[in-house]
Amino acid sequence: MTDRLREKLNQLRTEVGTASMRAEKAEAKVKNLDQTILDNDHAIKSLQVRLRHAEGALEKMEHIVLDSKSAKQEAETGRATIEELTRKIALLESQLDRAEQKVNEMGGGRS
After folding, report:
1. Beta-strand (E) ranges in the chain?
2. pLDDT category, 107, cuts 50, 70, 90?
């Protein structure tokens, strides 16, 4: 009977040792997973900060684009106005030249 008890004790010791090793491995794995979670949380927070900065920069760029489009439209309108005024000036100068020529012809014909 003593041999059976010893054998049973040895078997239990072996099982305890195996269970202990499994527990240590599981604890190490949990520790590694906890560290991985912490690392991922840190990476997420870092990416969230970068995203906020990128969104802010994007918003600024959108305003710049809108301002640029508005300035371009104003420039095109101004250019069209200048071209129209230039044509009017040319027309008026032409009319002035013709009027001066008629005046000269009238004045020249009397002399």
Report:
1. none
2. confident
Instruction: List C-alpha distances in Å: 55 to 48, 61, 63.
Output: 10, 10, 12
pTM, entire model: 0.56
- Whole-number pLDDT of residue 108: 58
Q: Cα 75 to the chain's mean position, in Å?
A: 28
- Residue 4: C-alpha distances to residues 7, 13, 100, 110 (Å): 5, 14, 139, 155
Helix (H) or strand (E) holding 18: helix 2-110
| Token representation of residue 105 | 């012809």
Give the CA count within 13 Å in the CB-facing half-sphere of 13.
6
